[in-house]
Amino acid sequence: MDLLTQVVREAPVPLWVIDHQGLVSLANKAAIRFLGYRGEDDVVGGPSHDLLHCRRPDGSPYPEHECPIVGSGGSALASEWFVTRSGDARPVQWTTRSMGSRLGTLLSFSPQPRAQTQMVRDLRSRGPAPRTPAVQVRGELRGSMLRTIEARFTDPEFTTAELAAGAHLSVRSVQAIFAEAGTSPAAEIRRARLEHARTLLAQGSAVQTACLASGFQDPGTFSRAFRQRYGVSPSQVPALSV
């Protein structure tokens, strides 16, 4: 670990580095604590705008192209609000500074307690929102990833890591998003494959054909997973009412 990285990670001021694709490449302990995440794995590799404030405090969308932070490319200073992992809106003052063409942009921020008090009053005057911004965003991300799973599960190389890469999130972040719904990305990929295989088998496909066409590479693994889910072996499917 180089000296600069160590200094950033241990600094008392919340800091993180945004690369040229708008992704978080480094986040220090103070920033992670302020935003309510558990560790670097929850944010590093994820889209900076989404992790900071993809929704405004009232729940309305905040498009990335309107964000003054991502892509600022130089020095800037402004007041803004960030949304924590639990959905709390926190007003902050932030600054950015270019770290050169190779490293990207360094973002630092600090809370504004007075502004936060006024924001809470404003939000309360509008009445309670049915869902917090962060919860809504994670639900939308989960829905988008479920659609990706349905489109790609037949690819035997498609894994949780591939799903996370396509969503520009870390594997742990993706797992946390699915855990909120009581499932996991791996379980959803396996569910899609097994349901497809069951349909093929009911239509008369051979076990080997259904196995490979559904994204399974090993017949033994397929048979065990199928029996665990449906209580019968794949060869017994035609006898089931579908």
Automatic annotation (TrEMBL):
Keyword annotations of the record: DNA-binding, Transcription, Transcription regulation
InterPro entries associated with the record: AraC_XylS_family_regulators, Homeodomain-like_sf, HTH_AraC, HTH_AraC-typ_CS, PAS, PAS-like_dom_sf, PAS_fold
Cross-referenced NCBIfam families: sensory_box
Domain PAS per the UniProt entry, residue ranges: 1-41
SUPFAM superfamilies, A to Z: Homeodomain-like, PYP-like sensor domain (PAS domain)
UniProt cross-references to PANTHER family, sorted A to Z: ARAC SUBFAMILY, HTH-TYPE TRANSCRIPTIONAL ACTIVATOR RHAS-RELATED
Name of this chain's protein: Helix-turn-helix domain-containing protein
Domain of life according to the entry: Bacteria
Annotated organism of origin: Arthrobacter pullicola
Residue span, HTH araC/xylS-type domain: 143-240
